[in-house]
Amino acid sequence: MINFEPRSNIRATDITKIYYTYFLNGITFTHLIGIRNMVLVTLFRLNLVKKFKINFKGNEYNITSMQDYYEFWHKGPGNMDRYKGLKISGNSISLTFKGKRLRFFIQNSSPRAIYNYSNLLFEQFTSNQYKVDVRGKIVVDIGAYLGETAVYFTLNGAKKVISLEPYPSAYDLAKKNLAINHVTNKVKLFNYGISGRENIIKIDPKVETSTTSDLKYFSKGKSVKLVPLSTLVKDHNLDNAVLKADCEGAEYDMILGCSDEILRKFSHMVLEYTYGYINLEKRLKKAGFKVSHTGPGAMYSGDADPHNQLIGLICATRID
């Protein structure tokens, strides 16, 4: 749980950018599916229409639930870019990267989950969102999830990847995906979470996570260790490493409470911020990093608290 107001963690001009992006996305979506269909989709998402029919490229879809809606998006306009090169088969998704055929097992094969997983893999392997040179370097991968970033960094020449995933169900899946993609010799996967200090919490091992699930505490379950960056640096003798983090709000405790000495053990950082960027940028600049960011974009996540997120990427390069 964060201890600041997300809107105070972005600049006033960012609000205008967010609404402008919404406007452009609305125009693009309307162009794809037509004005009539766009009106029906909007009314449905506002819960003003309970069911409707939508026509897209000669096919008719009966929308009576959110499941139907995501099924339409999966088969219709969402398929145009996000699904290029992806083969979805039952409980796995396959794709080709750098001439290698990769396969990732997934937790949930519902249309909505497939759409989210496909977005995740598209961002990683097609749009290459983590554009940092990892050749010959150790990468600390906070938020392993499916193991996709560990595979990505390994195939891009990382010397070793240290991956952390707190949710036992996702950890087990990542372990399976690292094995099937033949990268276990270069990846050390830990069932840990990241925090500002060491702690042990309980997590229900049966809980399935989404691409936007934050860290939740349970009254009973498997004991999972939370560690600060300083522990990882000490345990793995890190120096001049690369840090990647996609941890749904835990990035703030991880960075804001960390010393300059530990932060500067990393030459490059790529952090997905969840609730604004100002405090993270300020801390990293103080520690001697050149910092830039993308976004923010606005997103709603039912699997995180707060639900309303202001997201983007922070890229930081240590100034030597």
How helix-rich are the residues, as a percent range?
25-40%
Question: Architecture of the largest domain, CATH level 2?
Answer: 3-Layer(aba) Sandwich
What fold name stands as the CATH topology of the largest domain? Answer: Rossmann fold
Number of strands: 16
How many helices? 10
The figure for the number of domains is 2
Largest sheet: 8 strands, mixed
Low-confidence stretches: none
Rough shape? globular
Proportion of residues in extended strands: 25-35%
For this structure, what is the CATH homologous superfamily of the largest domain? Vaccinia Virus protein VP39
**Quick check: average pLDDT?**
89
How would you explain this protein's 3D organization?
With 320 residues, the chain is α/β, with parallel strands linked by helices. It has 2 domains: 6-79, no CATH class; 111-318, Vaccinia Virus protein VP39 (Rossmann fold, 3-Layer(aba) Sandwich). 33% of the residues lie in helices and 27% in strands. It is built from 10 helices and 16 strands. It has helices at residues 12-33, 35-45, 66-75, 111-125, 148-155, 168-180, 229-235, 251-256, 260-263, 278-286, and strands spanning 52-56, 59-63, 87-89, 92-97, 100-105, 138-142, 160-164, 187-190, 192-194, 199-203, 222-227, 241-245, 266-273, 289-293, 297-300, 308-318. The strands form 4 sheets. Strands 6, 7, 8, 12, 13, 14, 15 and 16 form an 8-stranded mixed sheet that branches. It has a 3-stranded antiparallel sheet with strand order 3-4-5. A hairpin with a 7-residue loop joins strand 15 (297-300) and strand 16. The longest helix is centred in the first third of the chain and has 22 residues, at 12-33. It is globular, with a radius of gyration of 20 Å.
